Amino acid sequence: MLRKPLMLVLPLLLAALALLPTAAEAQSSGPGVQVVMPPVGLSIEYPLLADDLGTGACPPPALVAQLLQLSSPPLALAGASQDLTSPSGGAPAGPGPSWAASTLYSLPASFWSQLHCLLTAAKDPLTAGLNLKTGQLSWATQMVAAAEGAATNGLDFSLGNEPDIYELPNYADLGNKLSTQEDLAAINLYLQLATILRPAIGSSALIGPELAAAKHWQDQLPGVIAQFHYQTVGVHLYPFSACKDPRAATIKNLLSPSAGESPRSLAWVVADATAAGVPAIISEANSVSCGGMPGVSNSPASAVWAVRFVLNALKTGFREVRFHLSGGSYDPFVVEGETIVNRPLESALVALNQWLPVGSSLRTVSSARGLVTTAVSGDPSGPALILDNESARARTVKLPAVHALAISVLTARRTGLATATLPARHGRIKLRIAANSVVALMS
Question: Are residues 284 and 408 in the same domain?
C-alpha cells in the first residue's frame, strides 16, 4: 500500500503524466543533475574488439546495429590489454627477447581500417588507450596517427591503464592500503612515463589517470590533474572482485544498496575534477572485476544493479559510466560471427541511454522505505519517474491518474526490459513493483 512519505511524489507524478515537465521541476527543490554526456559508454579490450570486427573489410552489420541500439555510446579501447598492445608490426621492446616482449599483442594490420568502418556506421566517439607501461614513444605516435584516421565522431586518448597498481605483485593486493613510499613510487613512475609519451598526443584531448583504486592517489590526484591538463578525469570502480574476494560476489550482495551506491565513495574525485574545471567520469566499471562472476555478472540482477550504479554516479557528479567488455561473464553482449548474443546487462544500458538523453535532468525526490524515486525532466518522450524498489519484498503503489500509464520494467528475476500499459480505474492506477525491480513511468 502507498505509505504517507510517498505522497510527496504524487503531485510530481500528476504533473508529469499531464506532460507538464516544467511543473514537475517546480515540485522538486533545486535544479537537479543535468545530463551532459551519454550516461553509458563502453570500454573494450583491444584483442576482443579485433575479434569482434571479424575478417571482412567492415565489421558484421549486427555489431553496428548493436551500437546504434545503445545510442552510439562512447567507445574506449582500454583495459589491461592497453599496456600490452603494440602497433601492427611493432618491434619488440628492449634490446632482446623478454617476458614483456613475448606477451605483447600486436594489432592486426586491418584493425584501424575496420574500426573506421565501424565508427562511420555506428557514429560512436572514440577513446584510444596508449601503451604507457612499455614506454615506447614511437609506438604511441603510430597509435595516435592511426586512431586519428579511424575516428569519425570525436577522439581523445588515455595514457596507460591503472598505473597505481603497475607494481603490485598480484591483483588481490588491490584493496590493501599501500605504503606512502609505494604510492609515491607508482606516481613518480607514472609521471615519468606519461611525460615521455605526452608529446605523441599533441593538442588532442587527454583522459586519465585511469586509476584502479583512486584512494591510492587521493592526496596527489589534484597535482597529477594539474600537471597533465586532462580534459576529462577518468577513474575505475567495481563493487566486487573475483580475484580478491570471490565469496563476496553474490547476487544478494550485488543487489544490496551499498553496491549500487558505491560511486558515492568517489565524490572527492568529482570535487578534484570540478576544482580543475573539467568533468569526471567512471571510465571503467562493471559488477565484478577480473572478468566478472558467472551466475552473478550475467544474471538479470546485473541489470538492476547497473541502473542503480549509473543513477548514483550521475547524482554524485560523474558525467558518464563506461562498462567494460573483456570476454568475461560481465560483458553486456557477445559477438559470435555475424550475430550478437545479448546478456541481461545489455537491456539496462539500452534503457539508461534512452531514459536519460543528453539535455535531461534528474534528481531524487523520495527514498521512502526502500523505494527510491528519481524524477526525470527535459525529455517529453522519456520517463517522468524512475522507481527503484531496493527491498526484498514487492511494493504496491496506488497512483491517482485519469489516463493509462506506460511503464518499462527491469527486474532481478527476469531477463530483458519489459513494457506494459496499466489502465486507470476509478481515477487510480495500481502498480505492483516486484522486489529488486526498477520501473520507469513514462510521460
Answer: no
Q: Domain with 12 in it: what CATH number?
A: 2.60.40
Q: Are residues 159 and 303 in the same domain?
A: yes
Q: How many residues does the chain have?
A: 443
Residues 334 and 432 reside in one and the same domain: no
> pLDDT for 252-290, tens place per residue?
999 999 999 999 999 999 999 999 999 999 999 999 999
pTM listed for this prediction: 0.89
Residue that finishes a domain, picked among 318, 334, 355: 355
* pLDDT tens, position by position, 32-83: 899 999 999 999 999 999 999 999 999 999 999 999 999 999 999 999 999 9
Q: Are strands 205-211 and 232-237 parallel, antiparallel or unpaired?
A: parallel
Residues 6+ apart with CB under 8 A from 206: 156, 157, 158, 159, 198, 228, 229, 230, 231, 232
DSSP state at residue 172: G
Strand locations in 2-160 (E):
33-34, 40-44, 75-77, 85-86, 105-106, 126-130, 155-159
